[in-house]
Amino acid sequence: MISVSEIVSPPSQNNAKVAVLGASGGIGQPLSLLLKNSPLVGELSLFDIAHTPGVAADLSHIETRAHVTGYMGPDQLDAALKGCDVVVIPAGVPRKPGMTRDDLFNTNATIVATLADAVARNCPEAMICIIANPVNSTIPITSEVMKKYGVYNPNRVFGVTTLDIVRANAFVAELKGLDPARVNVPVIGGHAGKTIIPLISQATPKVEFPADQLSALTARIQDAGTEVVKAKAGAGSATLSMAYAGARFTFSVLDAMNGKNGVVECAYVRSEETECKYFSTPLLLGKHGIEKNLGLGKLSAFEENLVADAIGELKGSIKKGEDFVANMK
């Protein structure tokens, strides 16, 4: 039975206000569509430097209850963020063929720092989900900007690495003839090249591969973004799969904020699990963000080597992000 009080005042988070910063872009548009489709979202606040009124008008015609508003240009950024519970940031430039995620650093670092500054001023309590690459550096940037305002909460700042998990699930399912919806492969480390570490040994259901196949599968998961960049031949990077992954992570955060138990997602966060200040591992999410870091679990020898191999690059990317904020005017 639903009580009268639940009808009169449903749980507030079921009316969560979610902002998408970069809503007109290749990831932002399909991501906003998926969020508009969710009963967890009460208000959808869309921001970008161009075209947002059109995207908002288009989405507002969809027969779901999320109320959509569009904001355009730097003057409207603060208004877009007022009262937001969750902020998702796909803003930034995409990769082109031949580019690494790191090549995006200078442009995207400035964009993320500017947006994090606005979040710190307008909705410092919000859950912040960063998609903008290079995630290995943009999370340290976001954290350092929040610290400048004295509002940094490490339990609420997430680097969205869900696409790596989604890809790992899809590729393993394909190789083993399994239903991809039932496969779960944790992916730890970071979100670029060799810092992406799929834990095939911890997959459910349990799967095993001969050494050469495991090595090829791991490399494919690590390079899957480049696979899409090449296939799109200069027309962009992974947008649809990234939008799906970003929505999946956002829904998990909203579910946990709503009090759902046992919500676990991997994300790149402030961490004590390794010698890196930031590291992606499975996290138990709760009403206030990270409830518990579930750590690396038991690694195979192959996976231990992958972790050891990633540490140096991750440390460099983290320092690059921190230095960027330290040197900002």
TrEMBL record:
GO CC entries: mitochondrion
GO MF annotation: an example: L-malate dehydrogenase (NAD+) activity
Enzyme Commission number(s) of this protein: 1.1.1.37
Protein residues bound to NAD(+): 22-28, 48, 108, 131-133, 242
Keyword field contains Oxidoreductase: yes
Keyword ATP-binding: no
Residues binding substrate: 95, 101, 133, 167
InterPro entries: L-lactate/malate_DH, Lactate/malate_DH_C, Lactate/malate_DH_N, Lactate_DH/Glyco_Ohase_4_C, Malate_DH_AS, Malate_DH_type1, NAD(P)-bd_dom_sf
NCBIfam families: MDH_euk_gproteo (TIGR01772)
Family the entry assigns: Belongs to the LDH/MDH superfamily. MDH type 1 family.
Assembly and oligomerization: Homodimer.
Name under which the protein is recorded: Malate dehydrogenase
Lineage of producing organism: Eukaryota, Metazoa, Chordata, Craniata, Vertebrata
